[in-house]
Specification:
Helix content is 34%, strand content 20%. The protein has helices at 15-41, 89-107, 138-147, 159-162, 180-194, 211-224, 282-292, 345-359, 363-366, 390-397, 407-416, 439-467, and strands spanning 10-12, 53-61, 80-85, 111-119, 173-174, 204-208, 234-237, 241-244, 249-250, 262-266, 273-277, 299-308, 318-327, 370-378, 400-404, 421-429. Strand 14, helix 10 (390-397) and strand 15 form a beta-alpha-beta unit.
Length: 486
């Protein structure tokens, strides 16, 4: 086996020193793989299999004494050995340091940092936008399998997050929801689907199912960059086109948009706003949240259109989801339907305050445009054509006030991955009451409501940011024997 020279395993009581050791091990491994791959592409054949492994962090606790029970994360569940593999210290350095700091504070035992036994797949070692494998003939690409480690799906499932991971008596307990290969896999998927680099993603995420919202976000993002006293540092669009304060742009606009384009209104501390057009349907919603979850955002919120199910609703009314009916079917295997998806008070309060702030309505008057209730999510876009009274009866029995194809999926995946979530929808049609979408009506509706709805979502994020993210990551989303990392 051809392996790199890496720093030996060491113990640390300082998070910065621990992070520096993680970086040294990771960089040595990645540089080793890149060098060997470049030589292979140039025609050389290594004399043995090439391998580098991820760094790991390990914690040993031998007491049942608990850390501050008010905390949602930053401590382990009890005595034992806990560990996880780590990746991309350039991207996750601030996050890792904070997790290290909390573990050291709460358990007062050293952190062990070393090289793990988990191979780094050679694809995950490549620099941004590298396409070296594509230059190889078919026979030589096949030879790569004998010489380099390729991605192994068995090492990157979601068993930890799903609660199905059960380590043996001699195995370590997990410290994180995601292993390093699982994180790397999602980082590559994010580039592919959104057309932007993972490092551009911010810790507050807005999802939408309509391009109209994205058009408005682009307009607002570009206008914001023209403000000299702007609190944001850059606005990033697909193709990694970056507009900085003052309006100067760099990068090349892609010939066509990616499948689920992302846009980022960035702040230096990553507390800005990312907005993603996930398109229509629960499969897209699950796909995107599966991957964004590895970035450990502070919150994600769905802003989209819905069918109003009550005769008292008007087109343009808002629906604040406080419960979900899940008929999306894409998460049934990972998160059974008997699992409740609760509303999160911090998100609910911020969204309601934001509606009041933007509409300038309060109290009883606010109820004219905002209704709190259950949102049903279906995977059948033509649910109206099903035999009657099947779907209508179920929705009525559930007390649903609105229906869409994404919100319950996004909320359920937030619950599954411990990412605070919320939903604010806008009624665009009322199919049960004869008000279906027609071109003229839809255009007028979109013009009147999209800008306001988007500003409400952004105002909610401002409120959450101002209140502090500590209250967001509450114990409501944590399981019995939860991992220590946020």
């Amino acid at each position: 086996m051809i392996t790199p020279d890496v720093a030996p395993r060491r113990e640390f009581n300082d998070p910065d020193a621990a992070m520096a050791h993680v970086t040294a091990i990771y960089d040595a491994g990645v540089n080793h793989l890149r060098g060997q791959l470049m030589a292979f592409v140039a025609g050389e054949v290594p004399g043995d299999r090439v391998r580098a492994t991820y760094p790991y962090v390990r914690l040993r606790v031998d007491t049942v004494l608990r850390a501050d029970s008010r905390l949602a994360y930053g401590f382990v569940a009890g005595p034992g050995r806990y560990e996880t593999t780590l990746t991309r210290p350039d991207l996750f350095g601030r996050y890792y340091r904070e997790q290290f700091r909390l573990l050291l504070r709460n358990h007062a035992v050293a952190l062990e940092i070393g090289a793990s036994d988990e191979p780094i797949p050679v694809h995950f070692s490549l620099a941004e936008d590298s396409m070296v494998e594509g230059t190889l003939p078919t026979q030589r690409r096949a030879l790569m399998r004998d010489l380099f480690d390729l991605p192994d799906l068995a090492a990157m499932d979601d068993g930890i997050a799903n609660g199905s991971n059960e380590p043996g008596p001699r195995e370590a307990q997990p410290l994180s929801l995601f292993t390093a290969p699982r994180v790397d896999y999602s980082l590559h998927r994010l580039r592919h689907y959104t057309g932007t680099r993972p490092e551009h993603f911010q810790n507050f995420v807005l999802f939408t199912n309509y391009q109209f919202y994205i058009d408005e976000f682009i307009k607002l993002g570009r206008e914001t960059m023209l403000q000299p006293a702007c609190e944001y540092s850059a606005f990033v669009e697909p193709g990694n086109v970056v507009t900085r304060v003052g309006g100067a742009s760099e990068g090349v606009v892609p010939a066509r948009l990616p499948q689920m384009p992302a846009y980022h209104l960035m702040r230096p501390d990553r507390s800005g706003i990312t907005m993603v057009n996930i398109g229509v349907g629960p499969a897209n919603a699950k796909n995107m949240t599966d991957h964004i979850a590895v970035l450990r955002p502070h919150a994600w919120i769905m802003l989209g259109h819905c069918a109003g199910l009550r005769n008292t609703q008007q087109l343009g009314d808002y629906v604040l989801a406080h419960g979900y009916v899940r008929e999306d079917h894409v998460l049934d295997e990972e998160l059974p339907l008997w699992v409740p998806i609760p509303a999160l008070a911090e998100i609910q309060v911020a969204l309601e305050r934001a509606v009041a702030d933007v509409t300038q309505l309060s109290g009883y008057e606010l109820k004219r445009v905002l209704r709190t209730g259950t949102v049903a999510t279906t995977d059948n876009r033509n649910w109206e054509l099903l035999p009657h009274p099947g779907p209508e009866r179920r929705f009525s029995q559930s007390r649903a006030v609105a229906l869409d194809m994404e919100s319950a999926t996004i909320a359920a995946n937030g619950f599954r991955f411990r990412v605070p979530y919320g939903t604010l929808l806008c009624v665009s049609d009322k199919p049960l009451h004869g008000e279906i979408k027609l071109p003229g009506m839809a255009n007028a509706f979109y013009r009147e409501r999209v800008d306001q709805h988007l500003r409400i979502g952004m105002r909610a994020i401002e409120l959450l940011r101002a209140d502090g993210v500590g209250s967001l990551h509450s114990r409501k989303l944590r399981s019995f024997a939860e991992v220590a990392f946020q």
